[in-house]
Specification:
123 residues, single chain, mainly alpha
Length: 123
């Protein structure tokens, strides 16, 4: 069995390379940072847009941003778990639809903001 540079005790050969598990963890943390950013945007939209009298728009956009935050947080955790299991079993890494789903949702939010801004500027 191989030894680590810090100890003379043997390490299990079945244990995956720590670089892969740490890279997977960094990706998970990136999804969580994205979720926190989306949640902060939802709170800002709810607070500032509601003050302008556009409460329905504020609730719609805030809700969509909150849903995107939830999607990012939960999807990031599920992705981390699936990739960790694949790494430990020596399997191919699973594909993920999470980036596409989040991109579609954010594009919808962006489109809604553009339409709302155009209507507000015209009226």
């Amino acid at each position: 069995m191989p030894e680590t540079p810090f100890t003379t005790e043997p390490v299990s050969v079945d244990e995956p390379d720590y670089r892969f598990t740490l890279a997977n963890e960094r990706t998970f943390l990136a999804w969580q940072r994205t979720s926190l950013g989306l949640l902060a945007a939802a709170v800002a939209v709810l607070h500032f847009l509601a003050e302008t009298g556009h409460t329905h728009l504020a609730h719609a956009l805030g809700g969509l941003l909150g849903a995107a935050a939830l999607m990012s947080a939960s999807g990031g955790w599920m992705r981390w778990r699936r990739v960790d299991q694949a790494i430990r079993r020596g399997l191919r890494l699973p594909a993920s639809r999470l980036p596409l789903g989040l991109a579609v949702l954010l594009a919808g939010i962006g489109g809604t903001v553009i339409v709302a801004a155009t209507i507000s500027a015209a009226g």
